[in-house]
Amino acid sequence: MIKLEGITKSFGDLQVLKGIDLEISKGEVVSIVGPSGAGKTTLLQIMGTLDKPDGGTVKMNDQELNRMKDKEMAAFRNKHIGFVFQFHQLLPEFTALENVMIPAFIAGTSTKEATKRAKEILNFMGLTERSTHKPNELSGGEKQRVAVARALINHPSVILADEPSGSLDTHNKNELHQLFFDLRDKFEQTFVIVTHDEGLAKITDRTIHMIDGQIV
Asked: Can you give the pTM of this predicted structure?
């Protein structure tokens, strides 16, 4: 599903990625681990088209992403890729349901269809009774599950997560980790997760270790 070849990236004189080759198959739950500064987040951002490499190719579903024009790339990203970050980034003035619906609206989905999808996903996550609550009325774990639901609304083929459980306590962390596998089993999605959590890395299908901009 995802194929990276010879990916390099520098910021000024600092070379962050030094020729990354990586393949990820459909339905895999893959973790990327390594010390701070190893290049994990930069790699994830390039994989998700949030940044462009200096060299190399990024392919997803047999399409070469880094050759796309910005508008074409944005449309591909919104349709095929979902993002989950360490901090939920929910909009405080909207309910859980409305937050989940936002990417569907951006994709041009009708209000009726977006509402239906959002309710189905929130129900799957056990959040039906919390759907009309705003973020300040939700627990940390609930907020992060809403963020995951938002990432799923457009039925993306891959979910990219950057330290998704880093701000959660042990109970909510374990629930979120299990949720990734439940979602993979139900929707056949691929998960690529940057994490410092050894417990999560141990239960993923494969762990990619990075040091100094290289896979080791």
From this structure: 0.86
78 pLDDT more than 70: yes
CATH number for position 152? 3.40.50.300
Tell me the residue range of the domain where 134 lies. Answer: 25-52+69-215
Q: Is residue 169 a part of any domain in this protein?
A: yes
Give the model confidence (pLDDT) of 148-175 as tens digits. 888 888 888 899 998 877 767 788 788 8
Domain-located, residue 12:
no
138 assigned to some structural domain: yes
Number of Cβ within a 10 Å radius of residue 137:
12
Say if 2 falls within a structural domain: no
- Asked if 46 and 7 count as a contact pair (C-beta separation under 8 A), the reply is yes
CB 57 within 8 A of CB 79: no
Question: What does the alpha-carbon distance between residue 17 and residue 11 come to, in Å, rounded to a whole number?
Answer: 10
CA dihedral in degrees (77, 38, 193, 10; nearest 10)?
A: 0
Say yes or no to pLDDT of 197 above 90.
no
- Assign 3-class secondary structure to 46-109: HHCCCCCCCEEEEEECCEEHHHCCHHHHHHHHHHHEEEECCCCCCCCCCCHHHHHHHHHHHCCC
More confident residue, 124 or 6: 6
Residues ≥6 apart with Cβ < 8 Å to 181: 29, 203
Give the chain's domain count.
1
